[in-house]
Amino acid sequence: MYYDQEIIDKVKDRNDIVDVIGSYISLKKKGANYVGICPFHNDSDPSLTVSRSKQIYKCFACGEAGNVFTFLMKYDNMEFFEAIKTLADRAGVELPKDEYKSYNSEKAKKYEAMREIYKEVATIYYNNLYNPEDTTGLDYFRKRGLSDQTITKFGLGYSLKNGSSLYEHLKSKGYNDEIINESMLFNYTEKYGFRDKFWNRVMFPILDKNSKVIAFGGRVMGDGEPKYLNSNETLIFDKSSNLYAYYLARRTRKDYFLLCEGYMDVIALHQAGFDNAVASLGTALTEKQAALIARCVRRVVITYDSDDAGRKAANRAIPILRAAGISTKVLNMKPYKDPDEFIKALGNEAYQERINDAVPSFTFATKYKSESYDFSNPDEKEAFINDMVGEFCRTPEPARSVQMQEFSATYNYPLDQLKTLVAVRGESMRLSGAFGKDVGYENEPSVYEPENAASAKNVKEKAKPYVTEQEKLILTWMTENKIFADLTKKYLAEEDFSPGIAQKAAGLAFEQLDSGRTVVDASSVISCFETSEEQSAVSGIFLSELWDKMEDDKAGIEKGFIDAMVKMLTESNHRRLKTATENKDGNAITEYAKRTKVLKTLPQVLSAELNAGNWQI
Q1: pTM score, two decimals?
Q2: CATH architecture of the domain covering 5-91
Q3: What percent of the chain has pLDDT over 70?
Q4: CATH for 241-366?
Protein backbone atom coordinates (compact mmCIF):
# COMPACT_ATOMS: atom_id res chain seq x y z
CA MET A 1 0.00 0.00 0.00
CA TYR A 2 1.12 3.60 -0.50
CA TYR A 3 -0.18 5.34 2.62
CA ASP A 4 -0.30 4.41 6.29
CA GLN A 5 -3.20 2.18 7.22
CA GLU A 6 -4.56 4.99 9.38
CA ILE A 7 -4.91 7.23 6.31
CA ILE A 8 -6.45 4.43 4.23
CA ASP A 9 -8.99 3.68 6.95
CA LYS A 10 -9.84 7.38 7.26
CA VAL A 11 -10.58 7.62 3.53
CA LYS A 12 -12.58 4.39 3.65
CA ASP A 13 -14.61 5.47 6.66
CA ARG A 14 -15.54 8.78 4.99
CA ASN A 15 -16.88 6.98 1.90
CA ASP A 16 -19.88 4.81 2.67
CA ILE A 17 -19.79 1.92 0.19
CA VAL A 18 -23.54 2.03 -0.45
CA ASP A 19 -23.34 5.73 -1.36
CA VAL A 20 -20.30 5.26 -3.60
CA ILE A 21 -21.53 2.19 -5.49
CA GLY A 22 -25.01 3.73 -5.60
CA SER A 23 -23.57 6.68 -7.54
CA TYR A 24 -22.51 4.27 -10.31
CA ILE A 25 -25.36 1.73 -10.37
CA SER A 26 -28.88 1.53 -8.97
CA LEU A 27 -29.14 -0.21 -5.59
CA LYS A 28 -32.23 -1.39 -3.76
CA LYS A 29 -32.49 -2.35 -0.09
CA LYS A 30 -33.07 -6.04 0.56
CA GLY A 31 -33.06 -7.09 4.18
CA ALA A 32 -29.92 -5.87 5.92
CA ASN A 33 -28.07 -5.38 2.60
CA TYR A 34 -28.49 -3.71 -0.78
CA VAL A 35 -28.65 -5.42 -4.18
CA GLY A 36 -28.09 -4.28 -7.74
CA ILE A 37 -27.26 -5.36 -11.28
CA CYS A 38 -23.58 -6.35 -11.29
CA PRO A 39 -21.56 -4.14 -13.67
CA PHE A 40 -18.79 -6.73 -14.02
CA HIS A 41 -20.70 -9.32 -16.05
CA ASN A 42 -23.84 -9.67 -18.15
CA ASP A 43 -26.29 -9.56 -15.27
CA SER A 44 -30.06 -9.55 -15.72
CA ASP A 45 -31.19 -10.29 -12.13
CA PRO A 46 -29.60 -8.35 -9.26
CA SER A 47 -26.59 -10.47 -8.30
CA LEU A 48 -24.49 -7.83 -6.55
CA THR A 49 -24.87 -7.62 -2.77
CA VAL A 50 -23.55 -4.58 -0.89
CA SER A 51 -23.19 -4.72 2.89
CA ARG A 52 -23.31 -1.38 4.70
CA SER A 53 -22.41 -3.00 8.04
CA LYS A 54 -19.27 -4.65 6.64
CA GLN A 55 -18.57 -2.02 3.96
CA ILE A 56 -17.96 -4.68 1.31
CA TYR A 57 -19.71 -6.02 -1.79
CA LYS A 58 -19.90 -9.34 -3.59
CA CYS A 59 -21.52 -10.65 -6.76
CA PHE A 60 -22.80 -14.15 -6.12
CA ALA A 61 -22.90 -14.83 -9.88
CA CYS A 62 -19.44 -13.85 -11.15
CA GLY A 63 -17.61 -13.77 -7.81
CA GLU A 64 -16.32 -10.19 -8.00
CA ALA A 65 -16.03 -8.78 -4.49
CA GLY A 66 -14.19 -6.16 -2.47
CA ASN A 67 -14.48 -2.91 -0.56
CA VAL A 68 -14.98 0.65 -1.75
CA PHE A 69 -11.41 0.82 -3.11
CA THR A 70 -11.76 -2.45 -5.01
CA PHE A 71 -14.97 -1.28 -6.66
CA LEU A 72 -13.31 1.81 -8.12
CA MET A 73 -10.26 -0.19 -9.17
CA LYS A 74 -12.46 -2.64 -11.06
CA TYR A 75 -15.09 -0.24 -12.37
CA ASP A 76 -12.74 2.51 -13.53
CA ASN A 77 -9.60 0.40 -14.10
CA MET A 78 -7.64 2.26 -11.40
CA GLU A 79 -4.53 1.45 -9.43
CA PHE A 80 -5.01 1.19 -5.65
CA PHE A 81 -3.41 4.56 -4.93
CA GLU A 82 -5.56 6.18 -7.65
CA ALA A 83 -8.69 4.87 -5.94
CA ILE A 84 -7.48 6.26 -2.62
CA LYS A 85 -6.89 9.67 -4.16
CA THR A 86 -10.25 9.68 -5.92
CA LEU A 87 -12.14 8.79 -2.76
CA ALA A 88 -10.08 11.21 -0.67
CA ASP A 89 -11.09 14.03 -3.03
CA ARG A 90 -14.72 12.88 -2.86
CA ALA A 91 -14.76 13.00 0.93
CA GLY A 92 -12.57 16.06 1.36
CA VAL A 93 -9.74 14.15 3.02
CA GLU A 94 -6.32 15.74 2.54
CA LEU A 95 -3.67 13.13 1.81
CA PRO A 96 -0.16 13.71 3.20
CA LYS A 97 2.32 14.75 0.55
CA ASP A 98 5.44 12.64 -0.08
CA GLU A 99 4.56 10.15 2.63
CA TYR A 100 4.24 7.00 0.57
CA LYS A 101 5.17 3.90 2.50
CA SER A 102 8.29 2.20 1.18
CA TYR A 103 6.36 -0.85 -0.07
CA ASN A 104 5.82 -0.37 -3.82
CA SER A 105 6.34 3.39 -3.58
CA GLU A 106 8.64 3.28 -6.61
CA LYS A 107 5.79 1.98 -8.74
CA ALA A 108 3.54 4.80 -7.56
CA LYS A 109 6.19 7.43 -8.31
CA LYS A 110 6.83 5.97 -11.77
CA TYR A 111 3.10 5.97 -12.43
CA GLU A 112 2.85 9.67 -11.58
CA ALA A 113 5.95 10.49 -13.63
CA MET A 114 4.53 8.59 -16.62
CA ARG A 115 1.30 10.55 -16.36
CA GLU A 116 3.25 13.80 -16.35
CA ILE A 117 5.40 12.82 -19.34
CA TYR A 118 2.39 11.93 -21.49
CA LYS A 119 0.66 15.18 -20.57
CA GLU A 120 3.78 17.14 -21.45
CA VAL A 121 4.30 15.31 -24.74
CA ALA A 122 0.67 15.79 -25.78
CA THR A 123 1.10 19.55 -25.25
CA ILE A 124 4.29 19.58 -27.33
CA TYR A 125 2.65 17.67 -30.19
CA TYR A 126 -0.33 20.04 -30.16
CA ASN A 127 1.92 23.12 -30.23
CA ASN A 128 3.92 21.59 -33.11
CA LEU A 129 0.81 21.81 -35.31
CA TYR A 130 1.07 25.58 -35.24
CA ASN A 131 4.82 25.76 -35.85
CA PRO A 132 5.13 28.22 -38.77
CA GLU A 133 8.31 26.48 -39.95
CA ASP A 134 6.56 23.14 -40.52
CA THR A 135 2.81 23.16 -41.28
CA THR A 136 2.71 19.53 -42.47
CA GLY A 137 0.45 18.30 -39.67
CA LEU A 138 -1.97 21.21 -39.70
CA ASP A 139 -2.24 21.06 -43.50
CA TYR A 140 -3.16 17.37 -43.29
CA PHE A 141 -5.95 17.85 -40.75
CA ARG A 142 -7.41 20.82 -42.62
CA LYS A 143 -7.29 18.85 -45.86
CA ARG A 144 -9.31 16.16 -44.07
CA GLY A 145 -11.93 18.79 -43.31
CA LEU A 146 -11.33 19.22 -39.57
CA SER A 147 -12.12 22.53 -37.94
CA ASP A 148 -9.83 24.24 -35.43
CA GLN A 149 -12.47 23.51 -32.79
CA THR A 150 -12.33 19.77 -33.55
CA ILE A 151 -8.53 19.77 -33.56
CA THR A 152 -8.57 21.36 -30.11
CA LYS A 153 -11.35 19.11 -28.83
CA PHE A 154 -9.33 15.97 -29.60
CA GLY A 155 -5.95 17.52 -28.77
CA LEU A 156 -4.55 16.51 -32.17
CA GLY A 157 -0.91 17.16 -32.84
CA TYR A 158 2.18 16.61 -34.94
CA SER A 159 5.55 15.03 -34.26
CA LEU A 160 8.29 16.95 -36.06
CA LYS A 161 10.68 15.42 -38.60
CA ASN A 162 13.50 16.20 -36.17
CA GLY A 163 13.45 13.08 -34.01
CA SER A 164 15.63 14.46 -31.20
CA SER A 165 13.86 17.67 -30.13
CA LEU A 166 11.24 15.89 -27.98
CA TYR A 167 13.91 14.05 -25.98
CA GLU A 168 15.88 17.23 -25.46
CA HIS A 169 12.76 19.00 -24.21
CA LEU A 170 11.96 16.28 -21.66
CA LYS A 171 15.55 16.29 -20.40
CA SER A 172 15.33 20.05 -19.92
CA LYS A 173 12.24 19.41 -17.76
CA GLY A 174 14.25 17.14 -15.47
CA TYR A 175 13.07 13.68 -16.60
CA ASN A 176 15.73 10.98 -16.37
CA ASP A 177 16.57 8.45 -19.07
CA GLU A 178 15.03 5.56 -17.13
CA ILE A 179 11.50 6.98 -17.11
CA ILE A 180 11.91 8.35 -20.65
CA ASN A 181 12.82 4.86 -21.82
CA GLU A 182 9.90 3.26 -19.93
CA SER A 183 7.47 5.73 -21.52
CA MET A 184 7.88 3.74 -24.78
CA LEU A 185 7.74 7.01 -26.74
CA PHE A 186 11.29 6.68 -28.04
CA ASN A 187 13.54 4.33 -29.94
CA TYR A 188 17.10 4.06 -28.69
CA THR A 189 20.31 3.26 -30.58
CA GLU A 190 23.93 3.70 -29.53
CA LYS A 191 24.57 5.82 -32.63
CA TYR A 192 21.64 8.27 -32.29
CA GLY A 193 20.54 7.88 -28.68
CA PHE A 194 16.84 8.50 -27.94
CA ARG A 195 14.75 9.34 -31.00
CA ASP A 196 11.02 10.10 -31.08
CA LYS A 197 9.39 6.88 -32.38
CA PHE A 198 6.49 8.89 -33.87
CA TRP A 199 8.61 11.40 -35.84
CA ASN A 200 6.91 12.91 -38.91
CA ARG A 201 3.42 11.75 -37.93
CA VAL A 202 0.14 13.46 -37.14
CA MET A 203 -0.74 12.50 -33.58
CA PHE A 204 -3.95 11.28 -31.97
CA PRO A 205 -3.75 11.41 -28.15
CA ILE A 206 -5.58 8.56 -26.43
CA LEU A 207 -7.25 9.64 -23.20
CA ASP A 208 -8.63 7.50 -20.40
CA LYS A 209 -12.15 7.85 -18.98
CA ASN A 210 -10.89 10.65 -16.72
CA SER A 211 -9.58 12.68 -19.69
CA LYS A 212 -5.91 11.96 -18.90
CA VAL A 213 -3.51 11.24 -21.79
CA ILE A 214 -2.29 7.64 -21.59
CA ALA A 215 -1.10 6.82 -25.13
CA PHE A 216 -0.85 7.99 -28.75
CA GLY A 217 -1.65 6.88 -32.24
CA GLY A 218 0.30 8.34 -35.14
CA ARG A 219 -0.24 8.44 -38.91
CA VAL A 220 2.85 8.84 -41.05
CA MET A 221 3.12 11.81 -43.40
CA GLY A 222 4.18 10.55 -46.78
CA ASP A 223 4.85 6.99 -47.87
CA GLY A 224 6.57 5.65 -44.76
CA GLU A 225 5.67 2.39 -43.04
CA PRO A 226 3.80 1.49 -41.00
CA LYS A 227 1.03 3.85 -42.02
CA TYR A 228 -0.40 3.85 -38.48
CA LEU A 229 1.73 3.41 -35.39
CA ASN A 230 0.25 2.96 -31.92
CA SER A 231 1.72 3.24 -28.43
CA ASN A 232 3.07 0.18 -26.70
CA GLU A 233 1.44 -0.85 -23.45
CA THR A 234 2.95 0.84 -20.41
CA LEU A 235 2.36 1.25 -16.70
CA ILE A 236 -0.55 3.62 -17.51
CA PHE A 237 -1.87 2.08 -20.74
CA ASP A 238 -3.63 -1.20 -21.44
CA LYS A 239 -5.06 -1.05 -24.94
CA SER A 240 -7.56 -3.86 -24.28
CA SER A 241 -9.16 -1.82 -21.47
CA ASN A 242 -9.61 1.53 -23.24
CA LEU A 243 -11.56 2.99 -26.14
CA TYR A 244 -10.74 5.99 -28.28
CA ALA A 245 -12.98 8.98 -27.36
CA TYR A 246 -14.71 7.07 -24.56
CA TYR A 247 -14.15 10.04 -22.25
CA LEU A 248 -16.30 12.11 -24.64
CA ALA A 249 -18.90 9.52 -25.60
CA ARG A 250 -19.72 8.62 -21.99
CA ARG A 251 -21.25 12.11 -21.66
CA THR A 252 -23.67 11.60 -24.55
CA ARG A 253 -27.40 11.82 -23.99
CA LYS A 254 -28.02 9.12 -26.57
CA ASP A 255 -28.75 5.60 -25.34
CA TYR A 256 -26.35 3.88 -27.76
CA PHE A 257 -22.75 4.06 -28.98
CA LEU A 258 -21.45 4.09 -32.53
CA LEU A 259 -18.53 1.65 -32.68
CA CYS A 260 -15.92 2.57 -35.29
CA GLU A 261 -12.61 1.16 -36.48
CA GLY A 262 -10.35 4.21 -36.68
CA TYR A 263 -9.48 7.55 -35.10
CA MET A 264 -10.55 9.66 -38.08
CA ASP A 265 -13.92 7.90 -38.27
CA VAL A 266 -14.62 8.83 -34.65
CA ILE A 267 -13.42 12.40 -35.11
CA ALA A 268 -15.48 12.89 -38.29
CA LEU A 269 -18.60 11.59 -36.54
CA HIS A 270 -18.12 13.84 -33.52
CA GLN A 271 -17.59 16.85 -35.78
CA ALA A 272 -20.83 15.95 -37.55
CA GLY A 273 -22.69 15.92 -34.23
CA PHE A 274 -22.56 12.20 -33.44
CA ASP A 275 -20.97 12.56 -30.01
CA ASN A 276 -21.53 8.90 -29.12
CA ALA A 277 -18.81 7.48 -31.39
CA VAL A 278 -15.90 5.41 -30.03
CA ALA A 279 -13.28 3.07 -31.49
CA SER A 280 -11.15 0.17 -30.34
CA LEU A 281 -7.42 0.85 -30.32
CA GLY A 282 -5.84 -0.79 -33.33
CA THR A 283 -7.01 -4.25 -32.30
CA ALA A 284 -10.16 -6.36 -32.47
CA LEU A 285 -12.79 -5.51 -29.88
CA THR A 286 -12.04 -7.08 -26.48
CA GLU A 287 -14.19 -8.26 -23.58
CA LYS A 288 -12.86 -5.44 -21.41
CA GLN A 289 -13.81 -2.84 -24.02
CA ALA A 290 -17.31 -4.32 -24.30
CA ALA A 291 -17.64 -4.18 -20.52
CA LEU A 292 -16.58 -0.52 -20.64
CA ILE A 293 -19.33 0.22 -23.16
CA ALA A 294 -21.90 -1.67 -21.08
CA ARG A 295 -21.31 0.73 -18.18
CA CYS A 296 -22.76 3.56 -20.26
CA VAL A 297 -25.19 2.07 -22.79
CA ARG A 298 -26.88 -1.21 -23.65
CA ARG A 299 -27.11 -0.66 -27.41
CA VAL A 300 -24.37 -0.40 -30.03
CA VAL A 301 -24.45 0.29 -33.76
CA ILE A 302 -21.33 -1.14 -35.39
CA THR A 303 -20.10 1.19 -38.11
CA TYR A 304 -16.95 -0.59 -39.29
CA ASP A 305 -15.56 -0.28 -42.81
CA SER A 306 -17.77 -1.80 -45.50
CA ASP A 307 -14.94 -3.90 -47.00
CA ASP A 308 -14.40 -7.60 -46.28
CA ALA A 309 -12.02 -6.89 -43.39
CA GLY A 310 -14.55 -4.56 -41.78
CA ARG A 311 -17.42 -7.03 -42.16
CA LYS A 312 -15.31 -9.82 -40.66
CA ALA A 313 -14.36 -7.58 -37.72
CA ALA A 314 -18.04 -6.70 -37.16
CA ASN A 315 -18.96 -10.39 -37.18
CA ARG A 316 -16.34 -11.10 -34.53
CA ALA A 317 -17.44 -8.17 -32.37
CA ILE A 318 -21.09 -9.26 -32.22
CA PRO A 319 -20.78 -12.19 -29.74
CA ILE A 320 -18.38 -10.19 -27.55
CA LEU A 321 -20.90 -7.35 -27.28
CA ARG A 322 -23.75 -9.77 -26.72
CA ALA A 323 -21.83 -11.51 -23.93
CA ALA A 324 -21.60 -8.10 -22.22
CA GLY A 325 -25.38 -7.72 -22.42
CA ILE A 326 -25.32 -5.27 -25.33
CA SER A 327 -27.92 -5.28 -28.11
CA THR A 328 -26.16 -4.80 -31.44
CA LYS A 329 -26.97 -3.62 -34.95
CA VAL A 330 -24.70 -3.21 -37.97
CA LEU A 331 -24.74 -0.15 -40.23
CA ASN A 332 -24.38 -0.45 -44.00
CA MET A 333 -22.25 2.35 -45.50
CA LYS A 334 -22.01 1.10 -49.08
CA PRO A 335 -21.03 2.38 -51.55
CA TYR A 336 -18.69 4.27 -49.22
CA LYS A 337 -15.93 2.65 -47.18
CA ASP A 338 -16.11 4.41 -43.83
CA PRO A 339 -18.06 7.07 -41.88
CA ASP A 340 -15.67 9.85 -42.87
CA GLU A 341 -16.17 9.21 -46.61
CA PHE A 342 -19.92 8.70 -46.19
CA ILE A 343 -20.55 11.97 -44.33
CA LYS A 344 -18.37 13.98 -46.73
CA ALA A 345 -20.38 12.56 -49.66
CA LEU A 346 -23.96 12.42 -48.33
CA GLY A 347 -24.05 14.43 -45.12
CA ASN A 348 -25.25 14.02 -41.56
CA GLU A 349 -28.94 13.36 -42.24
CA ALA A 350 -28.17 10.51 -44.62
CA TYR A 351 -25.89 8.96 -42.05
CA GLN A 352 -28.61 9.20 -39.40
CA GLU A 353 -30.95 7.41 -41.81
CA ARG A 354 -28.40 4.60 -42.13
CA ILE A 355 -28.26 4.38 -38.33
CA ASN A 356 -32.04 4.08 -38.24
CA ASP A 357 -31.93 1.34 -40.90
CA ALA A 358 -29.07 -0.64 -39.31
CA VAL A 359 -29.79 -4.38 -39.34
CA PRO A 360 -29.94 -6.53 -36.18
CA SER A 361 -26.76 -8.44 -35.43
CA PHE A 362 -28.46 -11.80 -36.04
CA THR A 363 -29.49 -10.79 -39.54
CA PHE A 364 -26.01 -9.53 -40.35
CA ALA A 365 -24.17 -12.49 -38.83
CA THR A 366 -26.41 -15.07 -40.47
CA LYS A 367 -25.98 -13.47 -43.88
CA TYR A 368 -22.22 -13.30 -43.32
CA LYS A 369 -22.15 -16.97 -42.37
CA SER A 370 -24.32 -17.99 -45.35
CA GLU A 371 -21.83 -16.48 -47.81
CA SER A 372 -19.37 -19.30 -47.12
CA TYR A 373 -21.87 -21.91 -48.36
CA ASP A 374 -22.92 -22.79 -51.91
CA PHE A 375 -26.72 -23.06 -51.72
CA SER A 376 -26.89 -24.69 -55.13
CA ASN A 377 -25.26 -27.72 -53.53
CA PRO A 378 -27.85 -29.57 -51.35
CA ASP A 379 -25.16 -30.92 -49.03
CA GLU A 380 -23.77 -27.46 -48.32
CA LYS A 381 -27.25 -26.04 -47.76
CA GLU A 382 -27.93 -28.82 -45.26
CA ALA A 383 -24.60 -28.10 -43.54
CA PHE A 384 -25.62 -24.42 -43.22
CA ILE A 385 -28.97 -25.40 -41.68
CA ASN A 386 -27.20 -27.72 -39.21
CA ASP A 387 -24.79 -24.96 -38.21
CA MET A 388 -27.67 -22.58 -37.54
CA VAL A 389 -29.57 -25.20 -35.54
CA GLY A 390 -26.58 -25.33 -33.19
CA GLU A 391 -26.63 -21.54 -32.92
CA PHE A 392 -30.34 -21.51 -32.07
CA CYS A 393 -29.76 -24.10 -29.35
CA ARG A 394 -27.37 -21.71 -27.64
CA THR A 395 -29.59 -18.64 -28.00
CA PRO A 396 -31.77 -17.73 -24.98
CA GLU A 397 -35.49 -17.11 -25.24
CA PRO A 398 -37.30 -15.02 -26.33
CA ALA A 399 -34.60 -14.08 -28.88
CA ARG A 400 -34.46 -17.69 -30.10
CA SER A 401 -38.10 -17.77 -31.25
CA VAL A 402 -37.84 -14.40 -33.00
CA GLN A 403 -34.62 -15.40 -34.77
CA MET A 404 -36.01 -18.75 -35.85
CA GLN A 405 -39.05 -17.05 -37.39
CA GLU A 406 -36.80 -14.61 -39.26
CA PHE A 407 -34.53 -17.40 -40.44
CA SER A 408 -37.48 -19.50 -41.62
CA ALA A 409 -38.87 -16.62 -43.69
CA THR A 410 -35.51 -15.49 -45.10
CA TYR A 411 -34.19 -18.90 -46.10
CA ASN A 412 -37.57 -20.51 -46.91
CA TYR A 413 -37.21 -23.29 -44.35
CA PRO A 414 -40.33 -24.70 -42.57
CA LEU A 415 -40.57 -23.26 -39.05
CA ASP A 416 -42.08 -26.42 -37.52
CA GLN A 417 -39.28 -28.53 -38.93
CA LEU A 418 -36.72 -26.05 -37.62
CA LYS A 419 -38.26 -26.14 -34.13
CA THR A 420 -38.10 -29.95 -34.11
CA LEU A 421 -34.45 -29.96 -35.13
CA VAL A 422 -33.59 -27.41 -32.44
CA ALA A 423 -35.47 -29.32 -29.74
CA VAL A 424 -33.75 -32.61 -30.59
CA ARG A 425 -30.28 -31.06 -30.94
CA GLY A 426 -30.69 -29.03 -27.76
CA GLU A 427 -31.59 -32.07 -25.69
CA SER A 428 -28.69 -34.04 -27.18
CA MET A 429 -26.23 -31.23 -26.41
CA ARG A 430 -27.56 -30.86 -22.87
CA LEU A 431 -27.22 -34.59 -22.12
CA SER A 432 -23.73 -34.75 -23.61
CA GLY A 433 -22.55 -31.77 -21.56
CA ALA A 434 -21.81 -29.73 -24.68
CA PHE A 435 -23.06 -26.58 -22.94
CA GLY A 436 -20.68 -26.96 -20.01
CA LYS A 437 -21.18 -28.12 -16.46
CA ASP A 438 -21.88 -24.77 -14.86
CA VAL A 439 -23.97 -22.92 -17.43
CA GLY A 440 -27.30 -24.19 -18.73
CA TYR A 441 -27.72 -24.16 -22.48
CA GLU A 442 -30.61 -21.69 -22.28
CA ASN A 443 -28.14 -19.11 -20.89
CA GLU A 444 -25.18 -19.88 -23.14
CA PRO A 445 -24.58 -17.04 -25.62
CA SER A 446 -24.65 -17.72 -29.31
CA VAL A 447 -21.25 -17.69 -31.01
CA TYR A 448 -20.79 -17.13 -34.71
CA GLU A 449 -17.18 -18.22 -34.99
CA PRO A 450 -15.48 -21.01 -33.03
CA GLU A 451 -12.55 -18.85 -31.96
CA ASN A 452 -14.98 -16.52 -30.20
CA ALA A 453 -16.48 -19.19 -27.98
CA ALA A 454 -14.24 -18.35 -25.04
CA SER A 455 -14.87 -14.63 -25.47
CA ALA A 456 -18.62 -15.07 -25.43
CA LYS A 457 -18.93 -16.74 -22.03
CA ASN A 458 -21.12 -14.61 -19.79
CA VAL A 459 -19.29 -15.51 -16.61
CA LYS A 460 -15.86 -17.05 -16.76
CA GLU A 461 -14.44 -19.43 -14.23
CA LYS A 462 -11.59 -17.83 -12.33
CA ALA A 463 -8.76 -19.43 -10.41
CA LYS A 464 -9.49 -18.91 -6.74
CA PRO A 465 -7.01 -19.00 -3.85
CA TYR A 466 -7.45 -22.05 -1.63
CA VAL A 467 -9.79 -21.27 1.28
CA THR A 468 -11.89 -23.93 3.03
CA GLU A 469 -15.58 -23.54 3.82
CA GLN A 470 -14.70 -23.72 7.52
CA GLU A 471 -12.27 -20.81 7.16
CA LYS A 472 -14.93 -18.75 5.39
CA LEU A 473 -17.35 -19.43 8.24
CA ILE A 474 -14.90 -18.59 11.00
CA LEU A 475 -13.62 -15.39 9.39
CA THR A 476 -17.15 -14.24 8.53
CA TRP A 477 -18.36 -14.84 12.09
CA MET A 478 -15.40 -12.88 13.45
CA THR A 479 -16.91 -9.80 11.74
CA GLU A 480 -20.39 -10.46 13.15
CA ASN A 481 -20.10 -11.12 16.88
CA LYS A 482 -17.64 -10.43 19.72
CA ILE A 483 -18.03 -13.89 21.31
CA PHE A 484 -17.19 -15.66 18.06
CA ALA A 485 -14.22 -13.36 17.53
CA ASP A 486 -12.94 -13.95 21.09
CA LEU A 487 -13.33 -17.73 20.92
CA THR A 488 -11.59 -17.88 17.54
CA LYS A 489 -8.65 -15.88 18.86
CA LYS A 490 -8.52 -18.04 22.00
CA TYR A 491 -8.38 -21.42 20.25
CA LEU A 492 -6.96 -20.68 16.78
CA ALA A 493 -3.68 -19.19 15.62
CA GLU A 494 -2.78 -17.67 12.26
CA GLU A 495 -0.94 -20.89 11.37
CA ASP A 496 -4.15 -22.91 11.75
CA PHE A 497 -5.49 -21.35 8.54
CA SER A 498 -4.55 -22.54 5.07
CA PRO A 499 -1.22 -21.08 3.88
CA GLY A 500 -1.73 -18.13 1.57
CA ILE A 501 -4.56 -15.67 1.42
CA ALA A 502 -6.63 -17.23 4.23
CA GLN A 503 -3.66 -17.22 6.61
CA LYS A 504 -2.78 -13.62 5.80
CA ALA A 505 -6.40 -12.50 6.28
CA ALA A 506 -6.57 -14.32 9.61
CA GLY A 507 -3.32 -12.71 10.76
CA LEU A 508 -4.66 -9.24 9.95
CA ALA A 509 -7.93 -10.07 11.72
CA PHE A 510 -6.07 -11.16 14.86
CA GLU A 511 -4.00 -7.95 14.76
CA GLN A 512 -7.23 -5.92 14.84
CA LEU A 513 -8.48 -7.86 17.88
CA ASP A 514 -5.12 -7.39 19.59
CA SER A 515 -5.43 -3.63 19.02
CA GLY A 516 -8.71 -3.53 20.94
CA ARG A 517 -11.42 -4.04 18.34
CA THR A 518 -14.36 -6.17 19.51
CA VAL A 519 -15.08 -7.60 16.06
CA VAL A 520 -13.07 -7.69 12.84
CA ASP A 521 -13.43 -4.84 10.31
CA ALA A 522 -13.48 -6.82 7.06
CA SER A 523 -13.11 -3.74 4.87
CA SER A 524 -9.86 -2.74 6.60
CA VAL A 525 -8.47 -6.25 6.21
CA ILE A 526 -9.24 -6.08 2.49
CA SER A 527 -7.38 -2.75 2.19
CA CYS A 528 -4.19 -4.45 3.33
CA PHE A 529 -4.10 -6.46 0.08
CA GLU A 530 -2.68 -4.58 -2.87
CA THR A 531 -4.16 -6.05 -6.04
CA SER A 532 -7.84 -6.00 -6.94
CA GLU A 533 -7.68 -9.76 -7.50
CA GLU A 534 -6.49 -10.35 -3.93
CA GLN A 535 -9.02 -7.90 -2.53
CA SER A 536 -11.80 -9.61 -4.47
CA ALA A 537 -10.78 -13.02 -3.16
CA VAL A 538 -10.61 -11.83 0.46
CA SER A 539 -13.98 -10.10 0.16
CA GLY A 540 -15.47 -13.38 -0.98
CA ILE A 541 -14.35 -14.88 2.33
CA PHE A 542 -15.94 -12.20 4.49
CA LEU A 543 -19.24 -12.03 2.59
CA SER A 544 -19.93 -15.74 2.56
CA GLU A 545 -23.49 -16.94 1.99
CA LEU A 546 -23.00 -19.46 4.79
CA TRP A 547 -24.01 -17.02 7.52
CA ASP A 548 -27.14 -15.95 5.61
CA LYS A 549 -28.20 -19.57 5.21
CA MET A 550 -28.21 -19.93 9.01
CA GLU A 551 -29.98 -16.62 9.69
CA ASP A 552 -32.29 -16.78 12.74
CA ASP A 553 -31.14 -20.32 13.56
CA LYS A 554 -29.17 -19.85 16.78
CA ALA A 555 -28.67 -23.55 17.42
CA GLY A 556 -27.60 -24.11 13.81
CA ILE A 557 -25.08 -21.27 14.00
CA GLU A 558 -23.57 -22.62 17.23
CA LYS A 559 -23.27 -26.12 15.79
CA GLY A 560 -21.80 -24.74 12.56
CA PHE A 561 -19.23 -22.70 14.49
CA ILE A 562 -18.20 -25.63 16.73
CA ASP A 563 -17.96 -28.04 13.77
CA ALA A 564 -15.89 -25.54 11.80
CA MET A 565 -13.50 -24.92 14.71
CA VAL A 566 -13.00 -28.66 15.31
CA LYS A 567 -12.46 -29.41 11.62
CA MET A 568 -10.01 -26.54 11.20
CA LEU A 569 -7.95 -27.60 14.23
CA THR A 570 -7.99 -31.22 13.06
CA GLU A 571 -6.75 -30.31 9.57
CA SER A 572 -4.18 -27.93 11.04
CA ASN A 573 -2.95 -30.67 13.36
CA HIS A 574 -2.47 -33.02 10.42
CA ARG A 575 -0.43 -30.40 8.57
CA ARG A 576 1.72 -29.76 11.65
CA LEU A 577 2.30 -33.49 12.24
CA LYS A 578 3.37 -33.99 8.64
CA THR A 579 5.86 -31.13 8.88
CA ALA A 580 7.12 -32.30 12.29
CA THR A 581 7.61 -35.86 11.03
CA GLU A 582 9.45 -34.71 7.91
CA ASN A 583 11.73 -32.50 10.02
CA LYS A 584 12.04 -35.09 12.81
CA ASP A 585 10.99 -32.38 15.26
CA GLY A 586 10.29 -34.11 18.59
CA ASN A 587 8.94 -30.99 20.29
CA ALA A 588 6.44 -30.41 17.50
CA ILE A 589 5.30 -34.03 17.67
CA THR A 590 4.73 -33.62 21.43
CA GLU A 591 2.75 -30.43 20.77
CA TYR A 592 0.62 -32.36 18.27
CA ALA A 593 -0.28 -34.88 20.97
CA LYS A 594 -1.33 -32.09 23.36
CA ARG A 595 -3.52 -30.44 20.73
CA THR A 596 -5.11 -33.76 19.87
CA LYS A 597 -6.08 -34.17 23.53
CA VAL A 598 -7.62 -30.68 23.57
CA LEU A 599 -9.63 -31.53 20.47
CA LYS A 600 -11.43 -34.40 22.23
CA THR A 601 -13.21 -32.03 24.62
CA LEU A 602 -13.30 -28.91 22.43
CA PRO A 603 -16.95 -29.31 21.29
CA GLN A 604 -18.19 -29.40 24.87
CA VAL A 605 -15.92 -26.53 25.92
CA LEU A 606 -17.04 -24.31 23.04
CA SER A 607 -20.70 -25.11 23.64
CA ALA A 608 -20.39 -24.14 27.31
CA GLU A 609 -18.60 -20.88 26.50
CA LEU A 610 -21.20 -19.92 23.89
CA ASN A 611 -24.02 -20.58 26.36
CA ALA A 612 -22.24 -18.60 29.08
CA GLY A 613 -21.81 -15.69 26.68
CA ASN A 614 -25.56 -15.54 26.04
CA TRP A 615 -24.90 -14.21 22.55
CA GLN A 616 -27.65 -12.89 20.26
CA ILE A 617 -28.16 -13.12 16.51
Answers
A1: 0.65
A2: Alpha-Beta Complex (3.90)
A3: 89
A4: 3.40.1360.10
